[in-house]
Design a protein that fits this description.
The chain is an alpha/beta fold and about 280 residues long. The chain folds into two domains: about 60 residues, 2-Layer Sandwich (Nucleotidyltransferase, domain 5), CATH 3.30.420.40; about 190 residues, Nucleotidyltransferase, domain 5. The protein contains 13 helices and eight strands. The strands form two sheets. A six-stranded mixed β-sheet has the order 5-4-3-6-8-7, sandwiched between helices. A two-stranded parallel ribbon has the order 1-2. It starts with 9 loop residues before the first helix and ends with a helix.
Length: about 280
């Protein structure tokens, strides 16, 4: 796993950043070496919101294919939500009703499930990189920046509640997945080293998230980078990430969150193993 922030600056320029494209290609070259070493015969590489939105996505995809031999397929927000649900539900406990959320860099996918089967899903074009770039300029963030950040979240999630809030019941289980959520769990657990076994199905009450967010918002960036459980590359993005998670729980009335360490990656793998593409 590597964080290359391919979505950085897209809101402003509608283009993939040259430096971050280079970082991403370098990482994929490393992956290509592992693929070759282990004689892998079937590969699935997917591009999500950054490649969906950028005007120069095709240039990046051609460069990746030319320099690494990896063919990247851009998937829709709906397919991203579908694959995420596939990965999460493979490992999640049975539930009569569940709501899955995947907060990414440039978009957030959501899935409503009944009896552990998706019934409605979608994507919103809000993610932690965009939220950070829109609102946070100070270190640590100012009160005004936090207020501005929360206002955007209220607007975005208010629209989602109008669309799908009626499907969420008192017994609906809230499941969070992907980097923001698993990082929050790692901070809560104080992990020196990431552990799938400890992260998987870790339960977090809303109040615990609020306590962690208050601590993070007060800390300067360099201090956050030293925090146990928090990868230094996520130290800035964790603030919009945890505040967005809290806002989702508040707006939809969830008292706690179940953390899944499965998601898009595992969903893509399950589909690849089932039908080869």
């Amino acid at each position: 796993m590597a964080i290359t922030r391919l979505a950085a600056g897209i809101n402003r320029t509608c283009l993939l950043n040259t430096e971050n494209m280079g970082k991403s290609v370098s990482v994929l070259k490393e992956f290509a070496c592992l693929i070759s070493e282990y004689k892998v015969t079937r590969i699935k590489a997917v591009g999500t919101s950054a490649l969906r939105e950028a005007k120069n996505s095709e240039e990046f995809i051609k460069r990746v294919l030319s320099e690494t031999g990896i063919k990247v397929d851009i998937i829709s927000g709906h397919e991203e939500a579908e694959l995420t649900a596939m990965g999460v539900l493979f490992d999640a406990p049975e539930a009569g009703s569940s709501f899955i959320i995947d907060i990414g860099g440039g978009s957030t996918e959501w899935v409503l499930c009944k009896n552990s089967s998706p019934v409605e899903m979608g994507t919103i074009s809000t993610g932690v990189v965009k939220l950070f770039e829109h609102h946070i300029k100070s270190d640590p963030p100012s009160k005004g920046e936090i207020v501005s950040l929360k206002k955007e979240m209220d607007i975005v999630l208010g629209k989602l509640k109008v669309k799908s809030g009626h499907l969420i019941k008192a017994n609906t289980v809230f499941i969070g997945t992907a980097g923001t959520i698993t990082t929050i769990a790692a901070i809560d657990l104080g992990l020196e080293k990431y552990s799938h076994e400890k992260i998987r199905m870790h339960r977090m009450p809303l109040q615990k998230l609020c306590d962690i967010s208050e601590m993070l918002v007060r800390m300067p960036l360099m201090e956050r980078k030293q925090l146990r459980g928090l990868e230094p590359e996520r130290a800035d993005l964790i603030i919009p990430g945890i505040l967005f998670t809290i806002k989702i729980m508040e707006i939809f009335g969830f008292k706690d969150m179940l953390v899944s360490d499965n998601g898009l990656l595992e969903g893509a793998l399950i589909r690849l193993s089932a039908n080869g593409s």
